[in-house]
Design a protein that fits this description.
Layout (H helix, E strand, L loop, with lengths): L1 E5 L8 E5 L9 E10 L2 H7 L18 E9 L11 E5 L7 E5 L4 E2 L6 H8 L1 H11 L7 E5 L4 H12 L3 E6 L2 H9 L4 E4 L5 H9 L4 E6 L3 H8 L2 E9 L12 H6 L3 E3 L8 H16 L7 E6 L3 H10 L5 E5 L1
Parallel strand pairs: 8-9, 8-11, 9-10, 11-12, 12-13, 14-15
Antiparallel strand pairs: 1-2, 3-4, 3-6, 3-15, 4-5, 5-7
């Protein structure tokens, strides 16, 4: 089968197309004929060699976790009813035409949801739904969202609004600001303006955000921490800037701000299925709009990584197997 391998840590050019043996599903596993593959920023960072204290990935490896596709074969102990079903799943080595997955990790794709949309929700739908639960977003909360025009940010804006929160969304540049406003944010702040923190605070009502969802990290994340209200919640789950927001735990304690990190966005298998199912059902019902900015052929995985790293596309970047 055709797959994409990382032969050594480095830039996007280290992503190489290769012919590999078809994977064979073991007991309790299925073989998925992959349709679309999710791409997330952390995959570009792992490819470059970042975060080796957090990830045990070593070259050569096939990147990619979230996929959508059709069950083509089943291993021992798997019910025949799975054959031919459209599914979304986490796999190991998703940048490939075929991948195996534990049957317990599969989420059926409902009628009315295409496999491109399902791939876009395979990872971000889980994380977005999970973050709102972990941070306890509820009606009338003032929620500040950084990275609001990205794949997960666009979902967070809509899902937080659906819970009745007042959403102040941060994006960069006119095109992204317009998209986030279209998705229903109560106020949108362009972080390319030097005075964006003051603009955001005014939009939040002066006293700050009950919940800050920081999917950016770095300096922007640090500035957003100052916008969290005393007694609020701050989630530093994103690091596309190269590092998570540098938050002083003692300052957080003094202000009674509850901190959440990337570990709080890791969910067990049962929760993943529950959260992904909820996201897919929202999409099927027309209540959740999935924004896909670019789709690249599998053989152009390097170009897809460059697009993700440039942060130019709005919404998701996907691969078509």
């Amino acid at each position: 089968m055709r797959a994409v391998q990382v032969k050594a840590f480095g830039g996007p050019e280290v992503l190489e197309t290769a012919d590999l043996p078809d994977p064979v599903p073991g007991p309790g596993e299925v073989l998925i004929e992959v349709d679309h593959v999710d791409t997330i920023f952390v995959e570009t960072q792992i490819r470059a060699g970042w975060g080796r204290e957090h990830f045990d990935t070593e070259p050569p490896y096939v990147p990619g976790g979230g996929v959508s596709g059709t069950v083509a074969a089943a291993g021992a102990g798997v019910a025949d009813g799975w054959l031919g079903r459209r599914v979304a799943a986490f796999v190991r080595g998703g940048y490939a035409e075929r991948a195996t997955a534990a049957v317990t990790s599969l989420t059926p794709v409902p009628d009315g949801v295409d496999l491109r949309t399902a791939a876009a929700l395979a990872h971000d739908g889980v994380t977005a739904q999970g973050l709102l639960g972990v941070t306890g977003v509820r009606a009338d909360d003032r929620v500040l969202i950084l990275g609001a025009s990205g794949g997960m940010g666009t979902l967070l804006v809509q899902l937080a609004k659906a819970r009745g929160a007042r959403v102040v969304a941060c994006a960069r540049g006119g095109r992204k600001v317009a998209l986030v406003r279209e998705l229903g944010a109560d106020a949108v702040v362009d972080v390319s303006a030097e005075d964006w923190p003051e603009t955001a605070r005014a939009a939040l009502g002066g006293s700050g955000a009950d919940v800050v969802l920081d999917g950016v990290g770095g300096e922007l994340g640090a500035l957003s921490f100052a916008l969290a209200a005393d007694g609020g919640r701050f989630s530093a789950h994103g690091a596309p800037t190269g590092g998570f927001a540098p938050v002083d735990p003692q300052e957080a304690k003094r202000r009674d701000v509850t901190l959440f990190g990337i570990a709080d966005a890791q969910f067990g298998e049962a929760d993943v299925r529950r959260l992904r199912t909820a996201a897919l059902e929202e999409a099927a019902a027309g209540r959740l709009r999935v924004v896909v900015g670019r789709v690249f052929p599998l053989t152009e995985a390097a170009a897809a990584h460059r697009a993700v790293e440039s942060r130019q596309p709005v919404g998701k970047v996907l691969l078509k197997a």
